[in-house]
Write a structure and sequence with these properties.
single chain; 181 residues; mainly alpha; 75% helix
Length: 181
């Protein structure tokens, strides 16, 4: 006899599907020739000197310290392993998808609405390109923005002052990181 799928697991199905969608890319992990090489060099340099994260691409007018620190952390954990970088992207995609679904449900959305929104996000061209490419800023940025919206939702729903201050502070920090990505 088959056991029924737990209701919450079914409710967050698109987030689980996000992880499955990343499997082919993870199983054939490799770095790209141009942007990924630059990302690896700057991540390595950032490990040696954190100020590099503030200076990288300064000449191009781009300020991305959170992006470089994120990649430096991944580089420190896995060196030049594309699999680790792709696993981190898969984690961001799953977390972002789950966060989007949480927001839909928290505002009274139905399971059908959540699934449609989740599937449209997962199968959109920009999402596929951003999450299948290692050196994009969008996955980190979208995750931080979804996290900020969740924290805003918690902030507005909280009655406890400490929880409101904690949610507000965390939201502020997530938005600062998003700005620096």
């Amino acid at each position: 006899m088959m056991t029924p799928i737990p209701d919450r697991l079914l409710a967050y199905g698109p987030a689980l599907l996000a992880g499955l969608l990343m499997l082919p890319r993870i199983l054939s992990a490799h770095f790209g020739l141009l942007d990924d090489a630059v990302m690896l060099v700057i991540a390595r340099e950032t490990l040696n000197d954190l100020s590099v994260s503030f200076k990288a691409f300064q000449g191009a007018g781009r300020f991305l310290p959170a992006y470089w620190l994120y990649h430096a952390l991944l580089y420190a954990l896995g060196w030049e392993s594309p699999t680790l970088f792709l696993l981190a992207l898969a984690g961001l995609l799953v977390a972002t998808s789950a966060g989007m679904l949480y927001l839909i449900y928290s505002f009274g959305g139905t399971r059908l609405q959540a699934w449609i929104a989740g599937l449209l996000f997962l199968f959109s061209g920009p999402a596929a390109e951003a999450y299948y490419t290692l050196s994009k800023t969008e996955p980190i940025l979208v995750f931080l923005l979804v996290l900020s919206l969740i924290l805003l939702r918690l902030l507005t729903a909280a009655t406890n002052l400490r929880l409101r201050v904690a949610a507000g502070t965390a939201m502020f920090l997530a938005l600062v990181l998003a700005f620096a990505t």
